[in-house]
Structure formats: C-alpha cells, structure tokens
Task: structure prediction
Amino acid sequence: MNNYLIKVNSYLSFLMRRKGKHSIHSPFVYDFITNIIHDKKPHEACKVFKQARKRNFTNKNVIETVDFGAASGKKKFITYRIAVNKLAKKRSSGLREAALLYKVVKFFSPSQMLELGTSVGLGSIPLAMGNPNGKLITIEGCASVASVAQSNFIKFDLTNIDQVIGNFDVELQPVLNQMGKVDLVYFDGNHRKNPTIRYFKQCLEKAHEKSIFIFDDIYASEEMVSAWNEIKKHPKVSISLDFFHLGMVFFLNGVSKQEFALRM
Result:
C-alpha cells in the first residue's frame, strides 16, 4: 500500500476512534485536554513561529543537504541540492503542531529537552519558548541545514538551544550521557521503523515517570504506523495520545495502559 492510501485509511480510522473531552474517563487526559488542548489564548511562540516560517518560506538560497532518514531508501544517506524554502515546506511542522508543542512544554515545564531532527529549526522554536528556563539540545544530521536553523535561533534570540551536528546513530548516545536524564524528547527525524524504535529505546534509558516522548508523522508510512503501534505497546508506556500528525506517550506509575485519539 502506498503512503497516500496509508494516510487516508489511518485518518478514517482516527476519526472513528477520536474522543471528545466529556467521553474521557482518565483524570490525567481530561486535565490535558482542559489545560492544553482547550488553551486558545494567543501565545508569543505562535507569533514567532509564523515569522520564522515566513522567513524560511521566502528563502530561495540553495544548499547541499545530507539525508540519513527515510528519503535515503536502502542507502545509508543521500545528498542533494535544494532551496531552503522547499526544504522548509517539506520538513517543517504546521502551526497546530507547533502550538501543541509549545503548550505541552509550557504546562509540564520540562527542563531537559531533546529534539532528533532540527531541520531549519521551526520545531525547535515552540519547544525552546515553552520553557525559557529549560534547555533544548537538538541534533541535525546535515551541517548546511543546521546553519539555517542556527540563523533562525539567532534572529529570534533563542539562547536556550544547543545544536549537535551528525548522524543520530553516532551522536545520540553521547548526548544522552551528557544530559543524564530526559524530561521531553521530540522524535522528528529518520522516519523509519527500526531507527525510530532504536532511538526510542535509547532515550527510554534516561526517561523517568514524568518524561514525555513526542513522535512526528506517526502515519507517514507503513513503517511509521508499525513503529507507533510497537511504541504504544511497550510495557513502560502507560498513556498514549494520538493526534494523527503527532503521537505522544507518558510513563506514569500506577496507571493502567490507555490509548486515546484526540483532536489537536
């Protein structure tokens, strides 16, 4: 089945499973909906995100990029030239996803955050702005793409972001060792099953009861659907939230395994 049909079928299934606030019997998820999803106040992070997105969507500079993820197929990596605006449109989160990331960080206040897949830095912005007193380490495989992200961080004065450049397979473990613990991880790179599961398990070694793991594009392909289903079933995962474009898991002690499909 091609990726388009996978997304269509997955979305139809998602609509059938999706629940509203008043059909939720989990106090944790009910509070999540009330305090995060239903928080409709205008936030500065959304304003900055829009400005950064416009900045990148109008940047026609061509860069050489390296892709270690799903686009590389059976190869370890591929290189190609692409305009920044096309790359940003191809890889960047939408406004709703960015708003959700920001509100999650603002509500839970994770201090040690990790992002796998910086791209041009649009996903990093809501994470960093959600808790200015926290620290975000973001890993990007391609130096030229990372330089675009860094220019955005400087432009919008995001001083709580540290960049690491290199293949996740090489850089992730040293970063985790440096962090000691992870309060939040945003998985937004290498959208293939085996690497996603491998990075999930590596990060899990540094997780704790209040950690939050967020996965981008969980229905992007058959591999990602399979990865998401396996992650939800992991014994340490207590609650999983499916927003279709994003998946989120929690590791709360004393809570029986529960799965919810929610409107973003």
